[in-house]
Amino acid sequence: MTDEPTLDVLRPDAGLPFVIGGRLGRRPSRASLISWAIIAAVVAGPVRGLYLGTGSSMEEGFMLVFPKRMLAGDIPNVDFLHLYGPGALQTLMGWYRVFGYTLGSERTFGLLQHLGIITAVYSLTRAWGHRLGVVSAITVTLVVLTPIGLSALAWEGAVGLSLWSVVFAVRAMHTDGRRRWTAAALAGGFAGYALSFRPDLVLALGLAYGAVLVLSRHTPILPPVAIGAVAGALPMWVHLAIAGIGPSWTGMVTDPVFALRPGRELPRPPSFDKVDGALQAVVEGPADAPWWRLPALSANHQLFLWFFLVIGVALGVAATVIVLIRRSGRTPPRVALLIGALLGLGMLPQALQRPDSTHLAWGSCVSFALVPAVVVELLGVWRPRIAGWRTVAIAAGVTATMLFIVAPFYTYRSYLLYSRISIGNKPGGFEVARGERSFYFGNTALQGASQAAIDQLDAQSTPGERLLVGPADLSRTIYSDVVFYYLFPDLIPATYFIEMDPGLADKQGSRLAADVESADWLILTNFWTGWYEPNSSSVFGSDAPNQVVANQFCLVGNFDNALVLLYRRCAGGDGVSPAGLGIGADRRASLDHELVLQAQR
Fold first, then answer.
1. What is the pLDDT of residue 12?
2. 335, 370 in Cβ contact below 8 A?
């Protein structure tokens, strides 16, 4: 790298973007107001549809249920399985206290997490001007806003916090005095808080802050960053003190990295001739795929090509900015681009470990958002006569075309789907409800069977009784419809495995059988009986929980040909065997394809 002194402190100026030293508090310019208005309009398009859209009954369900269990005194990694950091759950505890324990409240929190990503991307790329900031913000909106709806998952929150950490780190490098110290401390605080949400972002933040330390080695940034990081990680320190290091290590490292991976990983690269992920196959089924009449590759071909594009973009953005700095010198925008690019590069494992559309989007959102800035930088070197709005227009065209060719189903089509729901052109999810609590399933069969089971359990259960929710065949815990716990907060979850995963709940010797034995009620579903993926999730585990169901529970409700089964602990005598209800090989074969296509989008 060159020794040009272009990292010297930039004096505050009304025209400087915030990320490279501009002051806060000044009156927004007309260009700034227009930029924010455009971004807000793009984000607003699908928002109503996202509030009404189908939810993921396990992932969104546990972000509703886990904080509520913590408010009741339960501890993650001790009283229930949780594979991520405690920060998101602790934050949601406070959120639910203030704004209520409802689906709308949870999805509003999820929307704010998305807005954290979008606004941070705009603030970072604002170093190239308002126009390019808007292009990058719209790009990241298309990539992250719709893959899993507004579920308040920890990943989105962690990425938003990490991006804001980068924004303040770059700002600290271009200010001085008290403003530098404050920006550096906030950068560290956001980084520590992000790691309390998702500890696996340590690689991404490590790469980004490695560049920060190298580029700012002559400025006193490290102490305030370290102080901020320790303070920002407070949720993790609290959790370690309460749960203990052993259970925390097992829950956040051993289980997700070693025990879970064989049952969740997908082929790398994705199969060219078919969709590998069971959930992705649901969306792309002939009866369920959203409208798209424009020319496009098939879904499986898009995933195959997108996989390679994700790798190429992450590596290419980082490599390009390094070469630019070495050959043409450092500038404040290139410093911002380098640190952001390394953050995106460090997120690549998230895309590679399970390359379905959601994880590809999650792992590439930062890198893709920086593509317009890379194009503008390259045009400045290769075609310096092209300047101003024309460079931004070319950058926007390149990015838009790239997404349209490689991944239109997972960007434009999803955005269009939820925008149509927003304006009433298409119905949203199919609502089930109990009192003031509701949720949206993917079709009328799931809605009808679930609502009937909810109504019967509501009529017959007593507050304080214990409920266990799982798949009809508990020897194959591929998924769990956790949302039923949310609809029955007056019943106590009877299992450590509120979230159920292959290789954990169904492994030989797990505590699931004992948990089933402790329950008063069981809701077992065949929503996922047809789940098939080329991994170990297809292997049947311990049959002990099924034997407990057969010997100690009586069937009190069979809804829509065993789509939902409601069991109650028998007062005396034997229960009804799951095999007697067709949950054996014949039942599995008959439902293998049909149910996975009609399951939730």
1. 45
2. no
The gap from C-alpha 276 to its chain's centroid, in whole angstroms, comes to 19
Contact 282/597 with Cβ under 8 angstroms?
yes
Instruction: State the DSSP H helix or E strand holding residue 80, giving kind and residue range, or none if neither.
Output: none
Select from 487, 483, 418 the least CA-distant residue to 454.
487
pLDDT at 360 over 50: yes
Exposure class string for 555-594: b at 16+ Cβ within 10 A, else e: bbbbbbebbbbbbbbeeeeebbbbeebbbeeebbeebeee
pLDDT tens digits, 362-398: 999 999 999 999 999 999 999 988 888 999 999 999 9
Q: Whole-angstrom Cα distance, residue 200 to residue 87? A: 13
In this structure, is the dihedral angle defined by the CA atoms of residues 342, 343, 349 and 354, taken in order, positive or negative? negative
User: 10 Å Cβ neighbour count for 440?
Assistant: 24
Determine phi and psi for 234, rounding to 5 degrees.
-50, -40
Residues 498 and 62 sit within 8 Å (Cβ to Cβ): yes
Distance between CA 601 and CA 585 in Å, rounded? 26
| Secondary structure of 457-476 in HEC code, one letter for each residue | HHHHCCCCCEEEEEECCCCC
From CA 184, how far away is CA 365, in angstroms rounded? 24
Q: How many Å separate Cα 14 from the centre of its chain?
A: 37
CA distance 248 to 226: 23
Do 305 and 269 form a contact (C-beta atoms < 8 A)?
no
Both structure tokens of 35: 């930029």
Strand order in the sheet with 492-493: 492-493, 466-471, 521-525, 564-569, 553-559
**Which neighbouring-strand residues pair with 521?**
467, 568
Work out the pLDDT band at 589, boundaries 50, 70, 90. Answer: very low
CA distance 410 to 300: 12
Collapsing DSSP states into helix, strand and coil, what is residue 384?
coil
Find the range with the poorest average confidence among 7-11, 63-67, 511-515, 557-561. Answer: 7-11
How remote is the C-alpha of 158 from its chain's centroid?
Answer: 9
With 50 as the cut, is the pLDDT of residue 595 above it? no
- Residues 323, 328, 331: CA angle, nearest 5 degrees: 100
Contact in structure between 475 and 543 (CB atoms under 8 Å): yes
Residue 213's contacts (CB-CB under 8 Å, 6 or more residues apart) are 221, 222
CA-CA distance, 479 to 390, in Å (whole number)?
49
Rg (CA), the chain: 25
Could you tell me the pTM of the whole model?
Answer: 0.93
As a whole number of angstroms, the distance between CA 282 and CA 302 comes to 16
